[in-house]
Specification:
Structural class: alpha+beta
Order of helices and strands: HEEHE
Number of strands: 3
Number of helices: 2
Strand content: 25-35%
Helix content: 25-40%
Largest sheet: 3 strands, mixed
Distance between the termini: 25 Å
Length: 72
């Protein structure tokens, strides 16, 4: 499921780069990602697209992926 998620988010137009990052100890998540946005793109707009992908995966797989996100 994580591989499906990563393959889908890499094609979001507003994302310049994605890195897998460590998850803070006080956060319960399946994966951590650091996202660098392209100039002129809003983090809220990209976050909405990321959340839509997570829900699509949930509806298809029946399991919710918990993703820790950092925007730079």
């Amino acid at each position: 499921m994580i591989i499906d998620y990563l393959s889908q988010i890499k094609i979001i137009e507003g994302i310049e780069n994605i890195e897998i990052t460590n998850i803070p100890e006080d956060v319960d998540a399946d994966i951590g990602i650091k996202i660098r946005l392209k100039k002129g793109y809003s983090w809220q707009e990209v976050l909405n697209q990321l959340n839509d992908i997570e829900w699509e995966l949930y509806e298809r797989e029946g399991e919710l992926l918990s993703v820790y996100k950092e925007f730079t």
